[in-house]
Fold this protein.
Amino acid sequence: MNKPRIKICGIRRPEDVELMNRERPEDVGFVFWRKSRRCVSRETAAGLRRQLDPQIRSIGVFVDAAPEEITDLVEQHIITVVQLHGHEEADYLAELRKRIPGTEIWKACLIHSRDDLMAAQQSSADMLLLDSGLGGGRRFDWSLLQDIHRPYYLAGGLDPENVVDAVRTLRPYGVDVSSGVEQDGIKDGEKVRRFIRAVRENDGMRKTEKESGGEKA
């Protein structure tokens, strides 16, 4: 199994970018939802993107934003992927695809029941991000994901201590973390390092007794 991609969300300071350039997650998230304490302006995001290693993707996080706002950020190369976290339906996604063809679109889905998961799997988005809330940092019932049939990023309540269990149990395409690598609302270098190391150094699967060298005596 390939190692899951790692997304560190809520980047908003030059110090955060320096940390990302050192630790090199595959993706970082800029939040453009004005009700979030991690929200950044277009100008701030543009400056951070210029400092960010070009090999790290910048994900724009939106909640019911005007398509024009998203289009501008993509066309100005401030973000390379769009993550929708509101009530955006299929017609909204179709409109975005006309405006920004070729841009990857993710849909964040809140999972509280099996019905939520079934609905999420019908999304026309290129990628799902499965979460418990809008940046609440709470874990949902992972057992609900046993029947999922498409790739997804796992979010909600992840931290350096539980991410290995999440990866081994669920085998997600990627993992997304924000508050789980913060201290007093600020990205913490040691927590980020531990989180990334935990994902990249685990074997990604539970070995059976046969794979481990035979049955127990």
Notes: The first helix runs from residue 14 to 23. Strands lie at 5-9, 27-31, 57-62, 81-84, 104-110, 127-131, 152-154, 174-177, 182-183, 186-187.
